[in-house]
């Protein structure tokens, strides 16, 4: 049989009289003389190995490219793999004569166009055995209230008589959310439940396994609520099943704000987290800086989100931006370079629109109405700021700590205080119109529905106040 020279390293075959290195791979070693049949067998084995390597290498490249594309789609455009969709599109009603969740709107504005009546008389009261710290919800013929003595109650709107009660299994300072025929309630031990509004029987229950201090917000078939395990949860309102969760860097104790495509959650530090409403993926992080703790909810109007912080700041942030990889790291070093004198100007954090000063710490969620942002502080200051520019429109000193988030009803701002009073201010001028006194501090926002003001007090009583007939 014909003898040939074959390279064991690359499988190249030459005539037997060939000399020198392999013309294919340039190797000096591995060249042997064999019968042509044996040489072609070696050559075929090499070609098969080479083909397998090329296929494996090509597949690896495709996987890497696909993974990079998926990562970029998620990071830059919030695309890619998505969690299960909500099974309904049910939302809390924004109809007239309804206050369906903690700040009424999913943007947390705390605003109703209904004018606040002058409280000439108490229509009725409902008293519990423990302080009331949560805002009631009002819809149709019922007032719904979660109590610190471990119950959810439904009261008759005209009379205040008990219609039904449900044993929560634990106390709560949250506000219930009305959605369709159900009432979504959250308790401090971490149980979220859907109750039938007609009789209070439970439809589903979900335990988050950690304390819950926030109130639920319900929109587009999803219950958004934060917990003490540093997570924001999105639950299906029809089933209670978890759609997604997002991890922050501290407890989440305030209600989220919904922008349409994103939700804004604030944890118990100096960070505002803006995540995709349908995906739960982080889009933007905004930091207020050391010592400027934020413990309130954000409020949204258009492209701007508003919130208050310690050290007397009210902030406006454009929520539409995206925080890209390494961006926060670069901001950190640019800020340090400025303090070290290596930069002439401080860096501007992405999303910054304006911030304004007010005396004291802003410890309660803002209110937003008439293109004006309203803020109260722990020193008794109440301020009104232009929502576009941040310019101060007026400031009023109540002389006592503000302990509730403001409510704006028509042209009246309602404020709860440490001294147990509800104070009504003119939204245009800040001048005081009237006060209503209870026997305990007011931490729940007053609610105005159908010509009645509902006030929950730490004296354990819910007051229904109306104008003179």
Automatic annotation (TrEMBL):
The chain crosses the membrane at residues 55-77. It comes from the Bacteria. Keywords: Membrane, Transmembrane, Transmembrane helix. The keyword Membrane applies. InterPro entries: PQQ_b-propeller_rpt, PQQ_rpt_dom, Quinoprotein_ADH-like_sf, WD40/YVTN_repeat-like_dom_sf. Pfam families: PQQ_2. This is Pyrrolo-quinoline quinone repeat domain-containing protein. Residues 153-323, 352-468 form the Pyrrolo-quinoline quinone repeat domain. PANTHER family: CELL SURFACE PROTEIN, OUTER MEMBRANE PROTEIN ASSEMBLY FACTOR BAMB. SUPFAM superfamilies: Quinoprotein alcohol dehydrogenase-like.
